[in-house]
Design a protein that fits this description.
Number of domains: 2
Largest sheet: 4 strands, antiparallel
Number of helices: 7
CATH architecture of the largest domain: 2-Layer Sandwich
Radius of gyration: 22 Å
CATH topology of the largest domain: Gyrase A, domain 2
Distance between the termini: 72 Å
Structural class: alpha+beta
Helix content: 40-55%
CATH superfamily of the largest domain: Transcriptional coactivator/pterin dehydratase
Strand content: 5-15%
CATH class of the largest domain: Alpha Beta
Shape: elongated
Length: 188
């Protein structure tokens, strides 16, 4: 039974079932006057609370294929995800704020870009260190050699379609720290 306050605030009409999770979350967001991302978290919170009270309730929900990820536990640390479950792109304001802290990086249609020009031996040392980031963090920049002295670094979240995400900003900071760590301008 739906409480009267909810029933009166969000009139429900019978319609066809959404064909996929993104459509469902858009519709929930529309009904609740929220973004699809907020709708995802609301749905996850409701399902989590129901399962916490009665673990068997999930079996009775009969979620369509693809909807079971709403029952998955929240990832530690939070962070917004898009309606398709991938990392959401930063808003224009979030991107401006992030770039203020990343003076060497430029947004492109394919993520964040940084070019570094160093003597070849120093550049090799930096690129080896950046490649090691993958083992440490699970991510590393895409590295393209422009000349023997110049490399182009791109950080991007493939599922974001070229838009910059919080994960990209985090990786750009790690790249900057790694470059600083190896003393990029000092030959050894």
């Amino acid at each position: 039974m739906i409480p009267r306050e909810l029933r009166d605030s969000y009139p429900l009409t019978a319609g066809e079932r959404p064909s996929d999770l993104a459509t469902f979350l858009r519709e929930v967001g529309r009904l609740a006057q929220r973004t699809p991302e907020q709708a995802r978290y609301s749905c996850q919170a409701v399902i989590h609370a129901l399962v916490e009270q009665n673990p068997a309730v999930l079996d009775g929900l009969h979620l369509p294929d693809g909807f079971d990820e709403l029952a998955a536990p929240f990832e530690p640390g939070g962070g917004l995800v898009a309606t398709d479950g991938h990392t959401a792109p930063l808003t224009a304001q979030e991107l401006r704020s992030a770039l203020a802290e990343l003076p060497y990086w430029t947004p492109t249609s394919n993520g964040l870009l940084r070019e570094i020009t160093l003597p070849a031996a120093n550049l090799e040392r930096v690129l080896r260190r950046l490649t090691a980031l993958r083992d440490e963090t699970g991510r590393a920049p895409h590295i393209g050699r422009v000349t023997p002295d110049t490399a182009r670094l791109v950080v991007r979240t493939n599922e974001a379609g070229g838009a910059v995400t919080a994960l990209d900003v985090e990786l750009a900071h790690q790249v900057d720290a790694a470059i600083q760590e190896v003393g990029a301008g000092i030959a050894s």
